[in-house]
Amino acid sequence: MLDPTQFKDWQIAEEAEKTMLSPEQWQEKLGLEKGEMIPFGKTPKLDFIKIMDRLKDRPDGNFVEVTAITPTPLGEGKSTTSLGLIEGLGKRGMNVGGCLRQPSGGPTMNVKGTAAGGGNALLIPMTEFSLGLTGDINDIMNAHNLAMVALNARMQHEANYSDAELAKRNLKRLDIDPKNVEMGWIIDFCAQGLRNIMIGLGGKKDGFTMQSKFGIAVSSELMAILAVARDLKDLRERIADMIVAYDKYGNPVTTADLEVDGAMAAFMRNTINPTLCYTVEHQPVLVHAGPFANIAIGQSSIIGDRVGLKMFDYHITESGFAADIGFEKFWNVKCRLSGLTPNVSVLVCTVRALKMHGGGPTVVPGRPLPEAYTKQDLGLVEKGLENLLHHLKNVKKSGINPVVCINSFATDTKEEVALIKRAVEQAGGRCAVSEHWRYGGDGALELADAVIDACKDPVNFKCLYPIEMPLRQRVEIVAKEVYGADGVDWAPEAEAKAKRFESDPKYADFQTMMVKTHLSLTHDPTLKGVPKNWRLPIRDVLVYGGAKFLCPMAGTISLMPGTGSDPAFRRIDIDVNTGKVSGLF
C-alpha cells in the first residue's frame, strides 16, 4: 500500500493493478456461471438477465446508501467513503460489493477530475474507469443524437414536401414547432461554446435551419432512463415515450412519433449490463449509469442495486450531492421505483464543511484553504453542526438507520472530532471516524463496525409522500420537511404547468425530481448552515416523458458545464513505450 501523502492517485492505482485478479479469477471468486460474465478487457460486464434469473430466489443482502451534509465546493468525499467502507467491510471478512456511477468525460478532463475515489479508497482499473469504460456513455450519445438526426431530417422534409409527397414516402406531417424543441445534442465534454448554436445553415438540402443546443452526455434523458429502468423491456418502453419536441398545437412529439425509438433501443441494448470494477484492495464494485444529480436522480442504477443485493451480503451505493437532494431522491424516487428497502444511510461530513457552515471563509476550488480550515476552531464546528443535525433528522424521517461518518483529514483535531461525536450521539445517531483515504480498509474499520451494527436494527422505511399526492403538495412537503423552507412561491408559468400536470392522468405516476443548488439547503448557494425564514421559488417545471420525471426548478440549471482555465487534461499523458496513462486524479 502506497502512502497517498507521497503518491498520486494514478500511481496508487497503477501499483494496485499489479496484483489485480483476472476476469476469469473474478468469475470464480464471485461464483458466476458460464455466460454470466461478458468479456471486455480488464472491465467485463455482468449479464444482468442471466444472473437475476439464477439468483431470483436468493434473499437480498444488507442495503447501505452513502450521502453527505451540504458540501463545500470541494465535496465531502462520498465516493471515497463508499469505497473505503467496502474495503473496511472486506477487512472484516464480509461478502461485500457496491455499485457506483460512471464518471463523465467532462469533469474528468476539467477541474473536478474522475469519480474514482482517492488515496487508498480508490477504484481500479482507474484508466479504464475514467476514460469511457465499456462504452455505455458512447451508446447513450449515439442513441440520443440519432433522435436529433431524426427530428431535424423530419423537419427538413416537412418543410420541403407537400402532404401528398410525404405520403408517398410513408410519412405523416407532424407539424413540429421549431420554437418548441425540447431536446438538443449531447457530447461528453464541458463545452460552453456549444450551449447555444444554429444548425442547418446553407441550402434547403442542409437540414432545417433552427436554433439548437448541446448538453453534456450524462444530462441526457437516456442516462436518467438507464438509472431507473428495471430491465430491458422497461428501458425500451421508456425510450419510446421520450419527448423530443412539441407540435404547433402544443402536443408532444415523441421518439415513437419519429419512428426512431427502436433504433435508439438497439444502440442501448448492452447498456443494461453493469460493468465490473474493483477497489485497490480487490473487492468487487459494479459501475452502472451516471445521471445528473439535479435534473435527474443522481444515483447508480436500480439494475445495479438489484444485482448487487443478490450477489453480496452488504451492498453499498452512493447518492449524488447532499442529503437534501441525493438522499431525498434515493428515499422518495429510487426506493419507490425499485421496491428495495435500505438498511442504513451513511451521512458523510468533514470538519472543514462544518466550519464553513459555522461561518468560516469562502472555499474556492483551486485556491489554498483559508487558515481557519486547517487550525482548531471549536466555535465554528459547533455552529456548523446545525447543518449536520438537520440532514441527520431527515434520514431518520425515512425510517432508515443513520450512521454519521467523519471523513478524516490530517488537520482535524481530537477535540473537534469529539465535539461532533457528542452532538451526533445526543441526536440519537451512530458516529464513526474513518481514515480510509490514507489507510484503506484498515482506516475504515470503525465505520464498517458501525454499519454492521446498524444493519442489525429494524427498519421502518416510509416515503415522505404518497405517489398519489398532487405535484404542488409534493413540492411543498419537500421544501418544508427536507429543506426547512417556510413555503413555496410559484411563478405564474410554473404554476400553470403544475396545474396542467395535476389534471392530466397521464402524469399521475411521474416522479418528482427537485432541481436546486447542492451548495445550500435553499435555492441560494451562498446561504450556508440551516437558513431560517425563507421560501422556495419555483420558476418552471420540466417534463421527461420517458424517464417519467416532473422537475420543479428552483433556479437556473445549465446542462452544459464550462471548462475552466486550468483543466485536468493539461496534465494527462501517456507513456509511449507502455501506453500507460498518467495524470488522472
Automatic annotation (TrEMBL):
<dbReference type="GO" id="GO:0004329">
    <property type="term" value="F:formate-tetrahydrofolate ligase activity"/>
</dbReference>
<keyword id="KW-0554">One-carbon metabolism</keyword>
<dbReference type="InterPro" id="IPR000559">
    <property type="entry name" value="Formate_THF_ligase"/>
</dbReference>
<comment type="pathway">
    <text>One-carbon metabolism; tetrahydrofolate interconversion.</text>
</comment>
<keyword id="KW-0547">Nucleotide-binding</keyword>
<comment type="similarity">
    <text>Belongs to the formate--tetrahydrofolate ligase family.</text>
</comment>
<keyword id="KW-0436">Ligase</keyword>
<dbReference type="InterPro" id="IPR027417">
    <property type="entry name" value="P-loop_NTPase"/>
</dbReference>
<keyword id="KW-0067">ATP-binding</keyword>
<protein>
    <recommendedName>
        <fullName>Formate--tetrahydrofolate ligase</fullName>
        <ecNumber>6.3.4.3</ecNumber>
    </recommendedName>
</protein>
<feature type="binding site">
    <location>
        <begin position="72"/>
        <end position="79"/>
    </location>
    <ligand>
        <name>ATP</name>
    </ligand>
</feature>
<dbReference type="GO" id="GO:0005524">
    <property type="term" value="F:ATP binding"/>
</dbReference>
<dbReference type="Pfam" id="PF01268">
    <property type="entry name" value="FTHFS"/>
</dbReference>
<dbReference type="GO" id="GO:0035999">
    <property type="term" value="P:tetrahydrofolate interconversion"/>
</dbReference>
